[in-house]
Amino acid sequence: MASIIPNVIEMKAEFVQAIFETLYMTFFSAIVSGVLGLIFGVLLVVTKPGGILADSVSYSVLDKVINLLRSIPFIILLAVISPLTQFLIGTTVGTTAALVPLIFGIFPFYARQVQNALLDVAHGVIEAAQSMGSSPMEIIFRVYLKEGLADILRVSIATVISLIGLTTMAGAIGSGGLGDIAISIGYARFENDITFVAMLIILAMVFIVQFVGDLIVKRVERY
Amino acid sequence: MAVSLNNIIELKDISVTFKNDGNVVKAVKNVNLKIERGDIYGIIGYSGAGKSTLVRVINLLQAPTSGTVSVAEQRLQELKPQELRQARKRVGMIFQHFNLMKSRTVLGNVEYPLLSKKISKKERREKATNLLNLVGLAKYADEYPSRLSGGQKQRVAIARALANDPDVLISDEATSALDPKTTISILQLLKKLNVELGLTIVLITHEMQVIKSICHNVAVMEDGEIIERGRVAKVFTAPQQKLTNDFIETSTNVQAAIKRITAEIDLQLAANQRLVYLNFVGNTAKEGIISGLAQKYQIDINILFANIDQIDGENVGYMISIFSGQPELINGAIKSLISADVKVRILEVGGSKGDEAANGVDYSERN
Could you tell me which of B294, B356, B344, B289 has the C-alpha nearest to residue B324? Predict the structure, then answer.
């Protein structure tokens, strides 16, 4: 083992910590951006012209904000957003500080995915609920989110996988994690085994997320 | 304006105008419609006639551009959103594509409207199960809609629409996606609900067969307007509009028969032959008019097509036949038919549509 991946063995403690940092960043930014994305996704669907709470002004503002945020390359967002990070977290460096750009980098993407998933809920089903006297809140929770649940789970899996990718880029602002180790140690010091093992661990994480996610979708989608 | 107690639905001067990209589409134009409690009221028209838009005005799923909507003595447009939702619960609706929730079981779909009621889970389940019994689907309670046939899905949709104990059921082309046999069974179910629950039914369709099977009253829509309305028996036996007549003839296969006989089969008429279309109504359908004619005028009558229908106890007959004999005798026979209240139309052979204005009933003049 030591002869194949000597540097990894030597830096075992750092590797374990990096794994935890990646998991930490992924988990907390997934929770926050998940909530934000769901809220924005639902708002986009209900305020859309012809939606159950149609409001063309709100819709076009939301739509443009989401588009704008999605257009900023993540590596630039990391830097641009630092004053906000400083204000919210008190520092711009480190694992917790990385949560701010990660959330702003991923939630607009997730909001769009949620929006698309909910737009797939047949208009007729919504109309039927309206004809039965359902309120907008009832329609959101009992129809949109219930009918769209399997699709929302599917896009959530894709989003978490993208998010794991983004955490590695956050290494650029000293976030720690596997990306950081792969670039600032493995790549910078020509210790290729470190880069390679970091990649394998990330791949393993992605496969686990996909596998567990698919199991959940299968359980939910019994129809 | 006083709202009549007998009319559960009153639409007054309803217009609906859609504006998109500078295009103004008048989907419904100044329609007045009163529907009595306990009626089965059919609205027939081709797609794009505005029927779906019109029925959506009844529960305000479509707000009219102008006009007033009253349901069960309530002016819907004056209600607050919360009150409107309560009012909508009095009006059930079923759809062409069923619109069931795929993520809920059959029972779950029927329970859905009850979720907002303050009743226990047990009561809710009980009520939904009773409704499934009513539509004959109790044993499918735990299946998902994707496992059901179209007719079964529509039954679930009917049970769901009844969960709020509505006074009115709106059926938006509910049988249009079903095969003829299933259509009949769904229509029988609607009729049963009308009789047993006193449910007022408003149904829209493009098939006269549906109107004929269960409706008491009918309105014919064209281009956003109601062009003809009345008791089904009356409209069927004495249509005033060309479109109404088209629907009737289509439903009795007469249109297809005329087309086939005049254009498609290789029919050669001799100089002393006439191709004649006859429409009998009421008693004229029962008397031996044809055999009497043949004897009295010494002509041969060769029947190519005949169909008889019963609508609200009235017989309506259709016949296409070749009259052979002396021209003056044929004319005499035709005159005697007309005087016996039979509608007569001489058909031309060989692709032309028949000389309606000269020989037959010209519907456009009878508006």
Answer: B294
Two structure tokens written together for A176: 């720690």
The nearest alpha carbon in chain B to A219 belongs to: B103
* CB within 8 Å of B252: residues ≥ 6 apart: B307, B309, B316, B318
Q: Which two tokens mark B194?
A: 């009308």
Cα B106 to Cα A144: distance, rounded to the nearest angstrom: 18
> Which residue in the set B61, B116, B145 is minimally distant from A131, CB to CB?
B61
Of A128, A133, A150, the CB nearest to B99: A128
Give how many domains chain B has, as a whole number. 2
Q: Which residue of A has its CA nearest to B160?
A: A132
Residues B134 and B208 reside in one and the same domain:
yes
- Chain A: give the shortest CA distance to residue B195, in Å: 23
Which chain B residue lies closest to A52 (C-alpha atoms)? B61
Q: How many Å lie between the alpha carbon of A217 and the closest alpha carbon of chain B? A: 12
Q: In this structure, which long-range contacts are made by residues A116-120, counting pairs with CB atoms below 8 Å and at least 24 apart in sequence?
A: A116/A155, A117/A41, A117/A148, A117/A151, A117/A152, A117/A154, A117/A155, A118/A41, A118/A42, A118/A45, A118/A144, A118/A145, A118/A148, A118/A151, A118/A152, A119/A45, A120/A148, A120/A151
Domain housing B274: 252-366
What tokens appear for A141 in the block? 């929770």
The amino acid that residue B72 corresponds to is A
For chains A and B, CB pairs below 8 A equal 70
Domain that holds residue A191: 6-222
Q: Per-residue pLDDT for B288 more than 80?
A: no
CA dihedral A99, A100, A105, A110 (to 10 degrees): 70
Mapping DSSP to helix (H, G, I), strand (E, B) and coil, where does residue B326 land? coil
pLDDT over threshold 60, residue B364:
no
Instruction: Report the DSSP beta bridge partners of residue B10.
Output: B34, B70
Give the nearest chain B residue to A130 (CA atoms): B61
The average pLDDT across A123-146 equals 96
* Interfacial A residues in 128-157 facing B (CB < 8 Å): 128-135, 138, 142-143, 146-147, 149-150
Using a CB-CB cut-off of 8 Å, the residues of chain B touching A49 are: none
Residue B214 and residue B77 share a domain? yes
Q: Which of B73-82, B115-124, B235-244, B251-260 has the lowest mean pLDDT?
A: B251-260
B176 in the same domain as B59: yes
Whether residue B162 is found in the same domain as residue B225: yes
CATH code of the domain in which A39 resides: 1.10.3720.10
Average pLDDT over residues A59-81: 94
Q: Do B101 and A222 touch (CB under 8 A)?
A: no
The count of C-alpha atoms lying within 13 angstroms of the C-alpha of B301, restricted to the half-sphere facing its C-beta, is 23
Contacts of A217 (CB under 8 A, 6+ apart): A150, A153, A154, A157
Q: Does A50 touch chain B (CB under 8 A)?
A: no
Q: Which of A131, A142, A146 has the CB atom closest to B88's CB atom?
A: A131
Q: Looking at the 3D structure of chain A, how many domains does it have?
A: 1
Left (φ > 0), alpha (ψ -120 to 50) or beta: where does B136 sit? left
The Cα of A46 is separated from the nearest Cα of chain B by a number of Å equal to: 16
As a whole number of angstroms, the distance between CA B75 and CA B226 comes to 22
Q: What chain B residue is nearest to A128 in terms of C-alpha separation?
A: B99
| B96 touches B176 (CB < 8 A) | yes
β-strand partners of A194: none
pTM over the 0.80 mark? yes
